[in-house]
Amino acid sequence: MSSLPALHVGGSRMHPGFLLAASILAAVLGMALLEDGVCRAPDGKNGSPGVPGRDGRPGQKGDMGEPGRAALSSSIKGSKGDAGEPGYPGPPGMRGSPGRPGPRGMPGLPGPPGQKGQAGNALEHPRPAFSASRLAPPRAGTTVVFDRIITNEENSYSPQTGKFTCSIPGLYYFSFQVVSSGDLCLSITKNGRGVVSFCDNNSRGILQVNSGSSVLSLAKGDHVSLTTNPVQGSSIYSGSEADSVFSGFLVSPETA
Predict the structure, then answer these.
(1) Which residues have C-beta within 8 Å of that of residue 192, sequence separation ≥ 6?
(2) C-alpha dihedral over 224, 225, 229, 230, to 10 degrees?
(3) Taking the alpha carbons of 78, 83, 85, 90 in that order, is the dihedral positive or negative?
(4) Cut 0.70: pTM above it
(5) Are 170 and 251 in contact (CB under 8 A)?
(6) d(CA 236, CA 146)
(7) Which residues lie below 8 Å from residue 24, measured CB to CB, with a gap of 6+?
(8) What mean pLDDT is predicted for residues 115-140?
(9) For 140-176, what is each residue's pLDDT tens digit?
(10) Tens of pLDDT along 52-62?
(11) Measured at the alpha carbon of residue 91, what is the angle toward residues 87 and 94, in degrees to the nearest 5?
């Protein structure tokens, strides 16, 4: 390859390498001016601020942030939040102890009258009753025998033994009037045991009446009689001038 000849400008001789570098620099600057389109002037002063623009559209919801740090003081409380939804009912608790009885209430109004019951028939229900006097009684120890029957419904009294035998349980009334000619003590006896006793002192030996009565509750098969106490006196008059009487009858039958 032959070397380039030297050029002469204005009588001066220039080296060919210098010219090549100058041409490249001129080309680069020319291309830069063509890219900007115009010649750049020095920067001017800043202008006045413009009017604020309108708000932009809301952005998308961001991701949840990390939990904040715990407060330094627990005494500082925030404002009360809204009430939450009611929870499900819990299981029933244990039954408590019963309370004290309350005061008694006012009496209620009377109820309506009930239906009228059917008429009863007294003849359908037996009513044991007896009454007996002394005529010529047999001796029976301390039991006073009344051998002459006046009344003996249901044959409940025995003129041989002087004892009344209960056939219908319930309340019975017994009484006696016994004429004495001396000291006399009598007892109404139930099943051989004295229930009530009556004593009369008669030192003058005149006729006088010893009397007594009682209501007894009897069960079926119980025995009732009148007995004397020989130690305290057993002077019962026997004659036609006055009668001694022993009586008894059912007052109220036992209810079921």
Answers:
(1) 223
(2) -150
(3) positive
(4) no
(5) yes
(6) 12
(7) none
(8) 80
(9) 678 999 999 999 999 999 999 999 999 999 999 999 9
(10) 888 888 888 88
(11) 140
SS3 30: helix
Residue in this structure with the two tokens 């009487």, named with its chain if needed: 245
Rounded distance between C-alpha atoms, residue 237 and residue 205, angstroms:
11
Q: Which residues of 117-133 are buried (b: 16+ CB within 10 A; e: fewer)?
A: eeeeeeeeeeebbbbbb
The identity of residue 119, as a single letter, is A
Tokens found for residue 224: 């009732």
Structure tokens at 124: 């359908």
Distance CA 53, CA 46 (A): 19
Dist. CA 127–CA 168, nearest whole Å: 8
Contact status, residue 185 vs residue 232, Cβ threshold 8 Å: yes
* Closest by CA position to 146, among listed 157, 156, 132: 132
| Burial class of residue 246 (count of CB atoms within 10 Å of its CB; 0-12, 13-18, 19+) | buried
DSSP-derived 3-state class of residue 35? helix
